[in-house]
Structure formats: C-alpha cells, structure tokens
Known about the structure:
alpha/beta, Aldehyde Dehydrogenase, Chain A, domain 2, globular
Amino acid sequence: MDTALPNHLNAQLFIDGEWTDAESGRTMDVVNPATGGVIGALAAATAGDVDRAVQAAQRAFDGGAWRDMPVQQRARILNRFADLFEADLEQFYKLETLNNGRPISETRAQISRLPQFYRYFAALALTRRSDVIPIEGPYLCYTQRVALGVVALMTSFNHPLMILSKSLAPALATGNSVVIKASEQTPLTTVRLVRLLVEAGVPKGVVNVVNGEGREAGAALASHPLIRKVVFTGGTDVGRSIGEAAARNFALTTLELGGKGAVILFDDFDMERAVNGAAFAAFIGAGQTCVCGARILVQRSMYAEFLERFRVKASGIRVGDPTDPKTQLGPVISERSRQRILAMLERGTQTGAKLLTGGTVPQALKTGFFIEPTVMYDVPPESEMGQDEVFGPVTVVIPFDDEADAIRIANATQFGLAASVWTQDVARAHRVASKLEFGMVWVNDHHRLDPASPWGGFKNSGVGRETGIESFDQFSEPRAVTVNTSGKTVDWYADDGELKRLN
Length: 503
C-alpha cells in the first residue's frame, strides 16, 4: 500500500473484482467536515450498479471458491488480512480523521483494535462446533451451519471502519459473499480496506462495494431479491424502512438504530470519577454515536456539585483541528447536521431547559462544522431534549431521587441500546443493571466494545446482534441432518398389524 495520502481521493465502485465508475458517470463530493472542503469524489451507484454487484456476489457464492473453501484456509486468509490491516494502521488513522472529523487520538484508539475482530472470527470459524441432538428412536441427529449467501452491509458515517468490521468479519468467516454500502459521507477507509482484502487473497466477487446515496443505492440494495441478510447501522426511521424492504424477500436483518443512552450516577460514587466518566460518555466522537451518554441521571444529593464540576470539565474540552493530537473534540459531520442540532438546542431552551455550557459555534473556528460541547440541565425527561436523539456534542443532566426513580427515568424512552450504572455498591450495580431495558449495560464505565461481546439494543434501537458468537451464528442457518441407524426401513403400507411410527 502507498504510505502517503493523495490530495484528492476517489471512491469508485468495486464489482466482481474490478474498480469501476458508476454506469451513469455521476459522482458526489466527499467533504472534510473540519474544513468544509472537498477532498474526493464518490461514484454514485444506480440501481443497475447495485444489481451488477449483487449478481457478482451471487456468482461468487454459487461458484463456491470462498463458501466451500476449507475453513482452515479461509481463516488463514482472514488472519493474513488482519496482519496487512495492522501494518497499515497509521494511514487508516489519518484517512478516517480526514473523512469524518474525529480527533486523531480517537481514531487511533478505535481503529487499532479492529484487526482483532478478524482474528477473533477466524478463530470462531475454526472452533465453533455443531450440535448432536438426542432424539427418540434409532437415529443420529446433528446440525450443520450453512452460509446465507449474499449479505448487504450498510454502514454509517460516525465509525466507518469499526461498524463495518463488526459485521464484515463474521460474514466472511462464515463463508458468505458481501456487498458493502458505506455512508456516502465517509467512504474512503472502506475503499482502502477492500484493497487489503483483495491483497490477502479473498476471491474475486466475494467482496463488492457500491457507493452512493442511501435513497438510491441503499434502497436498491436492501430490497434486492438475492440479498439474504441486511445489516444496517443508522437512524430508527431509515432502519424501519430497510427492515420492511428486507422482509418482503424474507431476508434476515440486523439493525443497530437510534439510542438515548442513560448514564446513572449514584451519590456513593467518587465525584471526580463521575465527572470524567460522564464527559467521556457524552462527548466521545462529538456525541455522534448511538450509545453516547445523552442523558446523565444524577442523584439529587450530588446534583448541584456535579453540575458545577461538569460545567468546568465540559467547557475545558479542546475543540479544533482533528489532525492535531492535542484536539479533544472534532466537528460534526456536516453543516446540515450542525443546523439540525442548533435548532434542537433552541427549542430546548424555549421549553424550559437551561444551558449550563456551550450551545454555540466556536468563534475561533471559522471553517468546518464545529459546535461547542454543550450541557443542558433541568431538562424535563419527557421533553424533546430528554427523549429524542441529538447525535451531536450535547448532553442533558437530569436529577433523580432514588434507585427506583433512576430506573423509571432511564427506561422511559422509545430506545433501548446502551446505559451505564456508576456506584460502589456491588449489589446495587447488579440490581439496577438487571432492571434496565437496554441491550448493553456497563458498570462504572461506558462505551466498551469487544469482538466477543454481543452488541445491539432493545425496543426502537433495533434487532439482532453484532459481534460475539450471536453475530457469528446469525450469518448462517442451521441444517438438521437425521440418520436412520437401525439398518431397517419400515414398510408403512404392509398389513401386518404392527404399530408404526409416523414421525
């Protein structure tokens, strides 16, 4: 791989082993959110391009070069890819920071763990056992795991490589072919990753990329009749439409959708740790993550002190050029996103919420899509700010009286993706975690991911799980094989008066 990033980056389509432009020739600008400047061109796929990619993936699957490859060899290729990925990490850090505006310190910390995901699922492919099922009679019954076929992986702008890797690794490890649709705002690291997959030895047609707008390329991919599973990360409304489109073809879905994460701080917890943990939960990734600490629930006895110390912490976060290692908060993804967030803040103050700090565009940053880290307090839990996803560097602080009150407020939302409980009381930690209606609960921490742990939510936060054995198994279907070991065949139609078994 090249060691320097070019000044202008192209994101072509990758179909049947070839890089190609969209059949229409149309392109879209790729923008650096830290400057607002154009840094590349994105081939905008049409429905015809999507069909070509899916057909290529289906041919590759039917041909069996990857699906029928001995699992030991498939695992070797994935491990070889992980080594190539690891050797190229420095360029991935820079490219993802350039494309989505996350501080280089964040992209370095996140992307450095991703080769582990491919090694983990390669290991699962080697070690995951099928079942032998005890059934009545002289029969041996066992299961086989069968790859689904062509899988669509549709990722979002906030964590392009991490979100892709959570599903690409198990999809490939189980023998599927894939068609990737990256966010049109952040396609660049996906393109670089696919080049490494080819270099590692993944056969032609097994991995395909269709870039472009969600309403055209994404919609065509989700509804394509050959797609056997759709994995999507994004907003709840779009996820619902994708789920409906996939269901018409009886395709499986894994949908990681919106969230309104709750950070529950009890008064027995150290104040400094509480402030630091809440700031990390709220502002990592500029709050552009479905699991961010969007609601900080603070026990009333510590509420006043927490507000003052949290104000100091949030206002001291360094906002600026994401390529600078000293920067702690980058821009949001686009001007449209920034205006949406600012409008929500204005409506929040109009309906009674109070601004603790932030809430405006940093005056020192004349270009790019920056917003100050923002904290609102005395926010009614049932209000828009207390209920709806902001997806920006904004959090709200809400007081609670006791354990039951904290659980009630935390669960009173349409979402159920992630929450965290902060307490020194071990029994309380387990008790509260067991009553929270969220797919993931952290204790005395937040936003932790491991390839072995299932990732996903309840309620309107989606269905299915990424990572873990659960994800691995959801990229295949079980086949039951039943063997008659008696050496006899029943003559069902003999008039011998014997009681015969039908099932």
